[in-house]
């Protein structure tokens, strides 16, 4: 009976002659990682290569690098980072902090699932005829994902409450989003068009644009699938989560907010503050 | 906010809708009053619920109401016969791999549980299976013939959950589950009948889509009046007991021994070697 074998088009390792578990040469999509890439390739080159199987063109690498900086830290107010800080403050293992960040940062409102859905919308927008009216483009991007039958990737997700990539609470697009979009508009036609029509799109939706929308447009222009974009968004937002978790761990729990709750269903006292 | 103030769902509204949600957090689900008491969904945890069975408490947490004992007993039994400490199962494998790298048990088990929300097994499968059965039932009740509903579902690219099984075509847990349901008087619901009618339809069509355990338990949950979200949350610990042994046994082996793979165990099927940097 033959041994179980793992199949991969990504990674190839040649063993050392005297140790079948030690790697002499590791190739990623054909490139010698430690013999040639190390010292020459940037981190974004490697990430793009791993996801797509191709080395990025200079423009793609520059755009991905810019996007990575834009997404690196959602800041301590963000639920994803908040989750990581809870792990830090409690002294749980480092991985628990990042797992917490990933679980929360996976969400459909501002998280990786939002990116996934926005990229699906972009796929629809890109499939429109070149002479399709702007209204059709807007309608495609602003559609809310509500399948009649749940697909394999729909299970468990709450019903979508707003068009992907938009802020359901405000018609204002934050300056940092506009700054990111302006700088990244060179990524390709999706990002460029988003930059060109941001005000029309937001006015029609009555909602501001978020970094999710920018990331989704950029990743679509980079040639990533929605599933790849979802994964990359999770990955790129981890550095901030890690840093803030460590910061809170060093500060101690007494300086971490523990807000009062207004208990609305208390068998003892109505409206007790804890 | 003072203890005498009347409760309210949110502070007065302001310009930005989230401003009403800053500061004190209104909640109906409970709170801990350290050194005094704890409230759990409107009941004093240590006074009103101290003799509650843990599974019943979990059900109260999910459903916000007491769940009939027969329904709890039913799933308690199903969880016994779905607890397979087989280290090859994908979720159990996470626990085993965490053991082999000497990670912590909680990290390994938490990740294994998270992974149990899969598409082709576990929570993702049951969620969709239940959603499917409820929607089909609604359409059949509205007068659409079952065959038409199913034909159109498949023609529209619908991907079926709750039917078929990724590894085996025979599910040894089905007879146990059906026997337990009969014993508890839970086997007369309309969604269960529908699940079998769908199974019959696919059998007649010669399709390899037979009702599996995920579909079967989803039918029971629908008959209990649960929603897919309630069901998936209630089922959270379903595979847990099979995971612990996988972690522990990996710890007993040398580090890295569980699922050890040589370089040659990976069959590379990608492009041939090429130089970096790539040609412009």
Characterization of the model:
The complex is a heterodimer of chains A (274) and B (280). Chain A has 274 residues and is mostly helical. Chain A has helices spanning 33-37, 43-52, 58-71, 79-90, 94-105, 112-126, 134-142, 175-184, 189-205, 211-221, 226-236, 238-251; strands at residues 6-8, 11-16, 19-28, 31-32, 166-167, 208-209, 261-263. Chain A contains twelve helices and seven strands. In chain A, strand 3 and strand 4 (31-32) form a beta hairpin. In chain A, helix 3 packs antiparallel against helix 10, helix 4 (79-90) packs antiparallel against helix 5 and helix 6 (112-126) packs antiparallel against helix 7 (134-142). Chain A starts with 5 loop residues before the first strand and ends in an 11-residue tail after the last strand. The termini of chain B are far apart. In chain B, a hairpin with a 2-residue loop joins strand 3 and strand 4. With 280 residues, chain B is mostly helical. Chain B has eleven helices and five strands; from the N terminus they run E-E-E-E-H-H-H-H-H-H-H-H-H-H-H-E. In chain B, strands 2-3-4 form a three-stranded antiparallel β-sheet, with no helix packed on it. Residues 1-14 of chain B have low confidence and may be disordered. Chains A and B meet through strand 1, strand 2, strand 3, strand 4 and helix 5 of A and strand 1, strand 2, strand 4, helix 4 and helix 5 of B.
